[in-house]
Design the sequence.
């Protein structure tokens, strides 16, 4: 069922400022399925309880902590993600601004609750804006990024951030799982969701926003997420005669164990197109 988002008065929201909904996460709150939706223009998160269903739900405002402030108009709250309850963030809700940057020119982000609540930041690179985010079952955070340049059109990137590094006042970064441009038949990619396939695979679904522009398209893409890469193999110290030890290396013979780059560590694709009929 498709239905308009209702305002506090029970009527469909109208006008760009009041209706600029940018994200969606559905969670169980007080035993009721509840939709969490951030609104970028007014820097607000509204909660819609399915009582009896989402189509008739009027919102309640989620009270944001005092550290969520000073976001730029039309570059504010864009992404919302809810961490796994068994991870270090203990089910916390995370908000990320699209392009409101801190003094170090990194993306502002916020952990709203839980044991690590407070502001943090995500390193900004290559002039990408963040358009959505979602936690994987293992607690890592995926962020969807979009860039537009008149000389190259739309580009997109997906980064995977180690969930254990997300903490108050931290600046986090991640490994790029995918980067694509218009030649890859993408568009203004703004939405991302995680589901688990029948065979247990973690599936990532992306959707674009055509902005009601006849030059753009609504595109849906789906990928299977590869598991994290294995740790790099230890390097063995040669003996004085130049030979390698014949017996398994002892801990003291391991050198430069962390020197292998992230790119070199990957031996399997990070994302692959998902075909439900395959």
Sequence:
């Amino acid at each position: 069922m498709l239905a308009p988002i209702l305002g506090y008065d029970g009527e469909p929201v109208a006008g760009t400022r009041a209706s600029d909904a940018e994200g969606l996460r559905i969670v169980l709150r007080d035993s009721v399925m509840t939709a969490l939706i951030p609104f970028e223009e007014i820097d607000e998160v509204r909660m819609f309880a399915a009582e009896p269903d989402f189509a008739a739900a009027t919102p309640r405002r989620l009270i944001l902590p005092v550290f969520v402030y000073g976001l730029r108009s039309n570059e504010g709250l864009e992404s919302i993600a809810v961490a796994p309850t068994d991870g270090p963030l203990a089910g916390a809700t995370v908000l990320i601004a699209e392009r409101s940057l801190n003094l170090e020119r990194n993306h502002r982000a916020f952990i709203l609750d839980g044991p690590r609540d407070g502001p943090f930041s995500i390193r900004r690179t290559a002039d990408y804006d963040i358009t959505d985010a979602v936690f994987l079952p293992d607690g890592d955070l995926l962020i969807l990024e979009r860039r537009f340049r008149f000389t190259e059109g739309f580009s997109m990137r997906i980064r995977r951030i180690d969930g254990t590094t997300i903490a108050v006042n931290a600046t986090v970064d991640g490994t790029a799982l995918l980067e694509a441009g218009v030649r890859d038949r993408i568009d203004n990619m703004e939405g991302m969701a995680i589901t688990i396939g029948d065979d247990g695979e973690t599936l990532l679904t992306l959707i674009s926003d055509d902005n009601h522009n006849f030059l753009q398209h609504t595109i849906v893409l789906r990928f299977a997420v590869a598991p994290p890469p294995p740790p790099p193999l230890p390097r063995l110290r040669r003996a004085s005669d130049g030979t390698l030890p014949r017996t398994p290396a002892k801990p003291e013979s391991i050198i430069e164990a962390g020197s292998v780059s992230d790119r070199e560590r990957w031996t399997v694709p990070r994302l692959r197109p998902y075909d439900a009929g395959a």
Remarks:
- The CA atoms of residues 92 and 113 lie 5 Å apart.
- The chain is about 5% helix and 40% strand.
- Residues 16-19 form the longest helix (4 residues).
- Residues 70-229 form one domain.
